[in-house]
Amino acid sequence: MKVLMFGAGVLGSLYAARLQESGADVTLAARGKRYQDLKQHGVVLENFLTGKQTVTQVRVVEGMPEEEHFDLCVMLVQYNQLKDAAEAVSKNKNISTVLVMANYLKGLDEIERILGYGRMMLGHVNAGGERDGHVVKYMTAEYMTMGELNGRKSRRLLQAVELFKQAGFPVKTCSNMDAWKRHHLALLTPMSNALYLNDINNYKLAKNKEDIKRSVIGARETMKALQAKGFPIYPKKLMMMNLLPLPVLTALFSKVLATKVMDIGGARHVRNAREEVLMFSRELIEVCDETGTKAPVFRQLHQQAHTS
Length: 308
Known about the structure:
Elements: E1 2-6, H1 10-21, E2 25-30, H2 32-41, E3 43-47, E4 53-56, E5 59-62, E6 72-75, H3 82-90, E7 98-100, H4 109-115, E8 120-124, E9 127-132, E10 135-140, E11 144-148, H5 155-166, E12 171-173, H6 177-196, H7 202-207, H8 209-228, H9 240-243, H10 246-257, H11 260-272, H12 274-291, H13 296-305
Parallel strand pairs: 1-2, 1-6, 2-5, 3-10, 6-7, 7-8, 11-12
Antiparallel strand pairs: 3-4, 8-11, 9-10
Helix pairs in contact: 3-4, 6-8, 6-12, 6-13, 8-10, 8-12, 8-13
């Protein structure tokens, strides 16, 4: 399969290298200094947990190839970069499928219109990390999630799933990725706000049971608001947020926060994406307002975390 990876940050670099190694024909679109680093060094990956480094030679292009055919384009950019990325990708009419991996709350109607109706699928990553010069330090979590907008298990969806599985990334499909994406942020945004109140230190937050408790209550409030907007809880395991007692959830999140995985995939991302976290936090406040959800705890977390 011929794949264009649009976005050469941590995730784009990781997936491009592993897909190339598994036999896919990968092109990585980059720009500026990142383009120069990739041309000079290749994709250099370092596993956060083991320290092992690998170097993979991947075809790198500067900017968007506008005429070349690709079976799949994977868009790996932050939400505030998504419109510009979609406009760049839309110039190539020889791409049948675009897998959009960005987080969002307000929907992707405009992005779908820009890309062209019928081209877009949704996905969620299973990795995180940061760049240290030209080296990408990464870690992976349990699995990726992908789905069609209409919830069907289409041929192209199964092909994308198999592509990433062959590269060593476990993948699950979801029949309602739109709701999945929103509830993912409803869970993580209150916790991100709590991290800001604890010096963006997951180990410090792990010991602060009161702020963990507030983040759990805040997630319950924002998930309730999303349900009032018509978005059912996905993935279903998130129902535990309402089913398990608050002390149990507080203890569970305390253990999860006190791990290196949360340091790498949680705190460091929150540190580098403050503008995006603030945007999603504001948008969740808007959802609460629209649905008449009081959400006093989430509103307090938002105010405290984002008041300079």
